[in-house]
Amino acid sequence: MTDIGNTSGFWIERTIGASAGAAISLVYMLPNGKREAISRFITGVISGLIFGGPTGAWLAARLGIAGYLSASETMLSGAAAISLCSWWGLGLLERMAKRWGREKETPG
């Protein structure tokens, strides 16, 4: 197993990747308000910080490019990917839950 290390660069790469993924996802699905944007952005950054390394390693292996990427590139791309997916996924789930909740309400 490769030891990436616990240096400041390690956390900077994760933070930049996670922030970039969360910011890019704003383009794909605009939030309904400031509160939704903030909560999903924070969720994206946190998930990118936590799962960025494993996601980057999994993606690189899955795509067959692990030998071509440095640890920094793997970390950065993994953090961005998981941040993008989690932010977008939470937004989609929230909107579906709101829609389904309205359909089940009966006028009364």
Would you spell out the secondary-structure blueprint of this structure?
Blueprint: H1 8-28, H2 34-63, H3 71-104
Helix pairs in contact: 1-2, 1-3, 2-3
How helix-rich are the residues, as a percent range? Answer: over 70%
Span between N and C termini?
61 Å
Number of domains: 1
Catalogue the unreliable spans.
none
As a percent range, the share of strand residues is under 5%
Structural class label: mainly alpha
**Number of DSSP helical runs:** 3
What report would you give on this structure?
- With about 110 residues, this protein is mainly alpha-helical.
- The chain has one domain.
- It has three helices and no strands.
- Helix 1 crosses helix 2, helix 1 runs parallel beside helix 3 and helix 2 crosses helix 3.
- It is elongated.
- The N and C termini lie far apart (about 60 Å).
- The model has no long low-confidence stretch (mean pLDDT about 85).
Features:
single chain, 108 residues, mainly alpha, 79% helix
Give a brief outline of the structure.
The protein is mainly alpha-helical and 108 residues long. The chain contains three helices and no strands.
